[in-house]
């Protein structure tokens, strides 16, 4: 992972100078990226997979929110950008990500699943210059469900757990099947501590979706053209989607194989 911690040097460098130092896949843990619109569930599925595979889940949105809550020098600048649903500059996001990766490397972390990065072609190019990404999973859901999921999202301000109070039912149309997603309700002890993200209001979610289509959708094509993109249409909530995602990733019997090898 040493090469990727040098991301910060690349963001301001016009002429990229270093190549990938990633060892062959069998010698290291997975280096995956999760793409998808706001509200699609990148965090939920990426963090579950990270637990399964024993790699860190690195969500740049979490890094931004952590920086915001720390009241550091960037806080006020960041809160204005995030609360309008806009993207933080490549330079700031790469600084935050580099620091996170360097801290992880110092603790002996290896491999990762990136969630929310890259979000622009420039970020994708910088990432490609410093490390090998094995696979990019593109999670997809109808826009109607995305908005409802963002508006229903709740976070426990004590344990950090992610929940959803929305009961979603989307009618099938144009050959696409309908879909039902049950709420993901918090346990009783979190109920009084639920908060809503400041950028999960209807106006800001619509702006985030617009920006995703403009700036982040080209990143899908960037990875598609390199043969790294796995498209995954979520068939419903976690109970329906998780086993199918494991199948699509050839991980459906991973846990059994791991315990047999132990
Ligand atoms: P998320 O939790 O991924 O929805 O991210 C929350 C907010 O953090 C976004 O709306 C952006 O303002 C900012 N952000 C997160 N990741 C990035 C990124 N890769 N590039 C630019 N801004 C980002």
Automatic annotation (TrEMBL):
What UniProt keywords are attached to this protein's entry? Kinase, Nucleotide-binding, Transferase
The stretch of residues making up the signal peptide is none
Keyword Kinase set for record? yes
* GO MF assignments: AMP kinase activity; ATP binding
Q: Which Pfam families match?
A: ADK
For this protein, the Enzyme Commission number is 2.7.4.3
Q: What class of enzyme is it?
A: transferase
Which superkingdom, per the lineage? Eukaryota
Protein family per UniProt = Belongs to the adenylate kinase family.
Q: Which proteins does it associate with, and in what oligomeric form?
A: Monomer.
Its recorded name reads adenylate kinase
């Amino acid at each position: 992972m040493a090469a990727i911690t040098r991301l910060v040097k690349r963001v301001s460098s016009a002429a990229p100078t270093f190549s990938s130092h990633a060892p062959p896949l069998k010698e290291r843990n997975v280096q995956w990226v999760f793409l998808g619109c706001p509200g699609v569930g990148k965090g939920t599925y990426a963090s579950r997979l990270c637990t399964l595979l024993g790699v860190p889940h690195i969500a740049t949105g979490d890094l931004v929110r952590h920086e915001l809550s720390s009241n550091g020098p960037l806080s006020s600048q960041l809160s204005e950008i995030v609360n309008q649903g806009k993207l933080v500059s490549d330079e700031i996001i790469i600084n935050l990500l580099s620091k996170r990766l360097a801290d992880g490397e110092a603790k002996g972390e290896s491999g990762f699943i990136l969630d929310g990065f890259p979000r622009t072609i420039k970020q994708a190019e910088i990432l490609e210059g410093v490390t090998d990404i094995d696979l990019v999973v593109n999670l997809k859901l109808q826009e109607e469900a995305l908005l409802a999921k963002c508006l229903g999202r709740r976070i426990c301000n004590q344990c950090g757990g992610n929940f959803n109070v929305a009961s979603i039912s989307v009618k099938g149309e144009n050959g696409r099947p309908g879909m039902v997603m049950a709420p993901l309700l918090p346990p009783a002890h979190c109920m009084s501590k639920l908060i809503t993200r400041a950028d999960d209001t209807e106006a800001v979610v619509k702006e985030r979706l617009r920006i995703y289509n403009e700036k982040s959708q080209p990143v899908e094509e960037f990875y598609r053209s390199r043969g790294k993109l796995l498209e995954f249409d979520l068939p419903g909530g976690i109970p329906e989607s998780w086993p199918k995602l494991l199948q699509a990733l050839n991980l459906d019997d991973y846990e059994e194989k791991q315990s047999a090898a132990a």
